[in-house]
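User: Could you walk me through two proteins back to back? I'd like the raw sequence and the structure tokens for each, with a short line separating them so I can tell where one ends and the next begins.

Assistant: Of course. Protein one, sequence then structure:
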Amino acid sequence: LHPSDTCRHRAGGRAGGRVGNSMTHLVADGDLAATADDADAAADLFLEAGVCVFEAALPPSLVAACRSVLERKSRLLDERLAARGVDLQAPWRFNEVCRRRFARYDLRGWALSDAIFTESLLLWSAAPWLPFVRSVLGDDVKELWRGVVDNRPGSETQGWHRDGGFLFPNGVDLPPHCLTIFVPLVDLLTDELGPPQFFPGSQRCTREHLYTGLGDGSCHLPHCTPQLCAGDALAFDYRIIHRGQANLSRGAARRSRPMLYLVYAKPWFTDVHNFPSDAPLFADPDAAVGGQHAASNEGGGGAGGGAGQQHGEPLQPSPPPSPPPPRPLAT
């Protein structure tokens, strides 16, 4: 099997071996599996690969409740966009939601305002991935923001990109300073709904030269497509090269792929995001739906934040808006 096309993560142990240029030992079945019960071992795997998966991190009942709320919010969103006459084919962004290319919506704030999101301790101080996050980023880690990416039918595959660049591009590998947790709210066991793909090891500055051929197709290093069940938690380094795939569902099987995300960082790190603060979708009917509120939307922000290389615009930094306020984590 060619690893760049068919490798999938499912239950299994961590592969051994030293990091090599190909990283082929981290694209085989089970190689990205981690356990929340051993945060330090998970952190070791994460430092090597830049990505790991915690199976069944959230219980099915919580996942189903979150999905139900978001389905309702999605209908309200569609109704409001239609009422405002928003052109879904053109770039647009509001306080509550931004378009990340066609049929890929990034929602924050309003979408997560229901009690299931605000009161469930498993999404806050009792989140099962927090010991791992602290092991990687330190006990004084902070949450930058959280949201949901709704990858809808008809979306397109993103370009390979990093959510954030290297802090000091001097050829020295540094430990992680920021990471994202993805929690799919539907099963992603095939390519139909557009699961994310990653180049393990690409978060290392000393390996940056190995990926210069991504733009013209001359890079042949293996990438992986983790198989995820609803409620799994996938952690990835802010600097790892990755992309989301197209949602190919059609007909009776047509459905969205909602992905909850949470972004954590060291206390001194602040990133930007490109959600406007003066374009409410659900309040002011005169708020702009184009112009400055749409200008930079397609290349930045989203599930990893927005400092730079986002959503099909690899290695091209977007202009920095104001940073969001940090949220300290409860201990």
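----
Protein two, same layout:
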Amino acid sequence: LQLEGRKRWRLYPPRGPDDVLPLFSSQDLDPKELPEPMLDTVLRPGDLLYAPRGTIHQAVALPGGAPSLHLTISSGQRWTFSEYLALLLPRAVDLAAESDAAFRASLPRNFQDYMGVIHVDKAKLKKKRVSFRDMVFNLAKKLITEDYFALDGAADQMARDFIHGRVPPLMPKAVRQRLEEAKKNDRGYDQDSSSAGDGGAGQLTETMHIALVAKGCARLVMEGEAAMLYFSTANSKVFKGEEEQSLPFADHCAPALEQILDAYPRFVRVGDLDQLEKEERLIVANVLFQAGLVVAKHG
């Protein structure tokens, strides 16, 4: 996005397959290595140029007029199938080892005598190497055919990390003030049922309605017998500048929490929260309210 001045941009096609959707930025390239540009244009204040991730580019400020200033926003660089598989595969191996003795079997005796880079070109070891490769490939096939992939678990891990790293959402002024006041008084997120729903100041009742403060500000993850709600409303504007924020609930609270998340931007009546007793509904609603995750209104 060009903010001030003018800048000449030249975009180039990939030099080869390795230049397509790279995971990391490259070093500066020698202009002599580059093909003809596929786009050569000048941006002025207010102009927006989109380039797919990893597009080779040159940007040169043009003389005269105001100094040139632009803002670059990158997306998707660390949100790829490779990151997902890096979480998925280790867990798949763990699950397979728990239930299949083939994954727990000892490696062949002295296998290091024929496996390794130094043995690649030794013809006399080819038979043993092929046999070992086949054993490994068969185990890899089992990971797929016997469904050891915890697809949802890996997705939850990525979502949890995303929630931790994202900037906090823009929240209503009243919510910001309430959280600042709680922080000033060093109050945490009170899950004590003795005060929940008693009608006192700041307490929600069954007749009130609540709604999530912002789309995507929280993620519900099931961890054993706990329903963990990870949220970004207390995040720093510095990348992961604060500790990961979460609220633990009993697993039977999950349907009510999911109901609130799915309802956004609509409000949900506290008394209508799914599968909870009256006292539990009040606890869940008030904990979320104190944490700044929901706004509330009278019915």
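Residues 126-145 form the longest helix (20 residues).

Let me know if you want the two compared in more detail.
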